[in-house]
Amino acid sequence: MAPLTRAKASSSRVAPILIQRDSDDSDHYHSSSSDYDDEEQVGAGDSSDDEDMGTNGLPTSEELHHEPPNTTSNAPPRITISLKKVCKVCKGTGHEAGFRGATYIDCPRKPCYLCKMPGHTTMSCPHRVAMEHGVVPAPRRNTSTTLDYIFQRQLNPNIPMIKPTFVIPDQLTCGIIRFHSRRVTCLEFHPTKNSVLLSGDKKGQVGIWDYSKLHEKTVYNSIHTCIVNNIKFNTDNDGTMYASSSDGTVSCTDLETGVPFVLLDLNPNGWIGPAAWRMVYGMDINTEKGLVLVADNFGRLYFLDTRSRTRAGGPFLIHKKGTKVVGLHCNPVEPGLLLSCGNDHFARIWDIRRLEAGSSLDNLRHGRVVNSAYFSPRTGSKILTTSIDNRIRVWDSIFTNMESPSREIVHSQDFNRHLTPFRAEWDPKVILQNH
Question: Which of 63, 100, 280, 309 is 20 to 30 A from 272 in CA distance terms?
């Protein structure tokens, strides 16, 4: 057997493994290093003694290899395994934050992910405990008592009841679980048939679901070729559906036949690049004037005539150039008023008789993108908006100072995922005073 030299002995050493934990400090690290050095020195001494002695306990000169002294350490590099907690948000140590699967863990050094306020995390956020903690009280409160209400009812019997009669909605005992092949992007109930629900998906399909025919499913695939962003009905003709899509078209479709008619095509030459591709997002119908109002991803508004099925006006720049206008809503009482919202963090009120850049009647500033904005369905004097800053805002009157909302409701809608945006709407069935 070949003799074992010093070089081979040094190369056969095993690299030490150092595990760092949260409790490890510099003193512990230095003590471990010193212990290791001592062990190396002792081990080196033992091996040299063994090599210097022969089989009879005497040194053999043939097996000795004289090497020049090496001033540098021949110890192999240490392998360090760190078990310390590292934050994915601030890159600091001592805590963990970020997404763990589908659960998001807040960084204690950053504002709360829910209410966007510093000093606490989402798990300890006061708005997460109960809904009433997330409502900022309105500055104008109703101080009337029950006796005041009885007295007003004696003077005016047309005052609505305090608690309206409860109506049991249509009960659904079973349904089709898989109705669309892609993500659902919009929903719309039929204006006269309570059992009919229309839906659009990411692929451009439009589905009709009738609760009275639970096991039947109607899906139209040829209306649009891309995401269906909005579906609306014309109350004068409830058999016709209007839809806007990211393929740049606005269609008018008969529900019985499913045959569409294109009212507007913003991309007549097809795909010529992402910079010039136009998509239609916001849409609403002005029944009194017979117009379909649509807006694109460049901040422009268009008027379409429902009778002649042609363009009646536009484009008008109503939001910052190059930003999406994701929502439009006409006032139900005063059809000349239009409410729009978009990616420029504003909801704006317009007079459609005078549409010019910068001529909005009021601008409602938000912290982030505004997903939706609606007038109240009965009086049209209130405004409800939904923003990605996890706030649902309510303005009690459009005839007063609208610099700040009357109340804000904290609601988690900043999903940080490719999901359909959350849009809060008024419930038209609820009868409230000044609703």
Answer: 309
**Are 89 and 107 a contacting pair, CB within 8 Å?**
yes
Q: What's the rounded Cα separation, in Å, for the pair 18 and 79?
A: 6
Q: What is the pTM for the complete model shown?
A: 0.68
Average pLDDT for residues 263-283, to the nearest whole number?
A: 91
Say yes or no: 130 and 239 in one domain. no
Q: Is residue 177 part of a domain?
A: no
Question: What integer pLDDT is reported at residue 93 of this predicted model?
Answer: 82
Distance CA 52, CA 64 (A): 7
Inter-residue long-range contacts of 181-184, CB under 8 Å, 24+ positions, other chains counted:
181/205, 183/419, 183/420, 184/420
Residue 168 placed within a domain: no
Bridge-based pairing of strands 79-82 and 17-20 is: parallel
**Higher pLDDT residue, 229 or 435?**
229
Same domain? 201 vs 122: no
**CA pair distance 224, 243, nearest whole angstrom:** 9
pLDDT tens figures, 288-322: 889 999 999 999 999 999 888 889 888 999 999 99
For residue range 164-195, list pLDDT tens digits in order. Answer: 555 555 566 665 567 888 899 999 988 888 88
Q: Which domain holds residue 354?
A: 318-435
Are residues 269 and 220 part of one domain?
A: yes
Examine the domain organization and report whether 249 and 347 are in the same domain: no
In the structure, what pLDDT confidence band is assigned to residue 230 with cuts at 50, 70 and 90? very high
Sign of the CA dihedral with 342 first, then 345, 351, and 356 last = negative
Give yes or no: residues 204 and 265 share one domain.
yes
Examine the fold and report which residue of 260, 280, 300 is the final residue of a domain before the chain moves on. Answer: 280
Number of domains in the chain: 3
